[in-house]
Automatic annotation (TrEMBL):
The lineage of its organism: Bacteria, Bacillati, Actinomycetota, Actinomycetes, Propionibacteriales. Its EC number is 2.5.1.30. One of its GO terms (molecular function) is heptaprenyl diphosphate synthase activity. Its cofactor is Mg(2+). It comes from Aeromicrobium tamlense. InterPro entries: Isoprenoid_synthase_dom_sf, Polyprenyl_synt, Polyprenyl_synt_CS. This is Heptaprenyl diphosphate synthase. Belongs to the FPP/GGPP synthase family. It comes from the Bacteria. It is an enzyme of class 2 (transferase). Keywords: Magnesium, Metal-binding, Transferase. Signal peptide: none annotated.
Length: 328
């Protein structure tokens, strides 16, 4: 099952696992094309695996209505196809060479293939969502607009009158929070859970999605490679702003001059990268970043009081805990 781990309720875990497996099967079918190159390239990231957090959340949130409703699995696939499509496009924009431990599509083929395969997956998602009704189409379109808006604002960077930290947080909400929010909303919507539950899960999804993304920012600095499975300092090498680095810049302390200078762009020298990692791990900005993530997860958890008590609500509460447990 996905990275959120096991649930305390065995029956719930079995149902959600079965639903996620149905999603996986439909993903494979949906990504197929009679054109050999498209079929190979579109299944490239699919076969590389992934957390499948978004479809899992859709299936789990459907527990607040009728979890056997036929539109739940297609809706979950719509969300995951959209997510996969954005990864193809992101890798082109970031000039990435690796994705999920394998060569990225743009590195294995070229940028044009990667872009067109991303477009193909968006098209497949659109085809599926068309069968889910006009409201689902509208939600998908609005989510897609937020994804594009977030990517564009990230690419352009903050304007002269923008606060860099607020700009970054809004980008995270658009690029990550919006699709996870839709995943949760679709689960409630397709299961007939009711408008109040749908609205609560929509907000929950956005908040917990932002919390997980910001936790990744901290893990990139605080965790050893053996613990996280990733090389620490990846964002530092690429000059990508993150929550801890922006907090350093927004509230400098005495002696920060060299640190702030190095954080102003990509860090090419590996000795400098390691020095910055050590400096950040001891910097008060890290505790401030952890506190921000915990507050976001707590805000998500507080929303759960509006939902019916039971194993599904407990599982969502556990997701909040796991978001903050990763902080160390």
């Amino acid at each position: 099952m996905a990275s959120v781990g096991s649930f305390a309720d065995d029956a719930l875990e079995q149902r959600v696992s079965a639903g996620v497996q149905q999603v996986e099967d439909l993903l494979v079918t949906s990504a197929h094309s009679p054109e050999p190159l498209v079929a190979e390239a579109s299944s490239h990231l699919l076969q590389a695996g992934g957390k499948r957090f978004r479809p899992l959340l859709t299936v789990l949130c459907a527990e607040f209505g009728d979890p056997t409703a036929p539109d739940i699995v297609p809706a979950a696939v719509v969300v995951e196809l959209t997510h996969l499509a954005t990864l193809y496009h992101d890798d082109v924009m970031d000039e990435a060479s690796m994705r999920r431990g394998a060569p990225s599509a743009n590195a294995r083929w070229n940028n044009s293939v990667a872009i067109l395969v991303g477009d193909f997956l968006f098209a497949r998602a659109s085809s599926l969502v068309a069968d889910l009704g006009p409201e689902a189409v509208r939600i998908q379109a609005e989510t897609f607009a937020r994804l594009v808006h977030g990517q564009l604002r990230e690419t352009l960077g903050p304007g002269p009158d923008d606060d860099p930290l607020e700009h970054y947080l809004s980008v995270v909400a658009d690029k990550t929070g919006s699709l996870i929010a839709t995943a949760a909303r679709f689960g409630a919507m397709m299961s007939g859970a009711g408008e109040d539950v749908e609205a609560t899960l929509l907000e929950f999804g956005e908040r917990i999605g932002v919390a997980f993304q910001l936790a990744d920012d901290i893990i990139d600095i605080a965790s050893d490679a053996d613990d996280s499975g990733k090389v620490p300092g990846t964002d530092l090498r690429e000059g990508v702003p993150t929550l801890p680095t922006l907090l350093v810049q927004s509230a400098p302390v005495e002696g920060d001059e060299r640190l702030r200078e190095l954080l102003s762009g990509p860090i090419a020298d590996e000795d400098d990268v390691q020095w910055v990692i050590r400096a950040l791990r001891e910097h008060p900005a890290m505790d401030r970043a952890r506190a921000y993530v915990r507050a976001e997860a707590d805000a998500a958890r507080a929303l759960l009081a509006k939902l019916p008590a039971g194993p599904a609500r407990d599982a969502l509460d556990d997701i909040c805990t796991r978001a903050t447990d990763r902080l160390g």
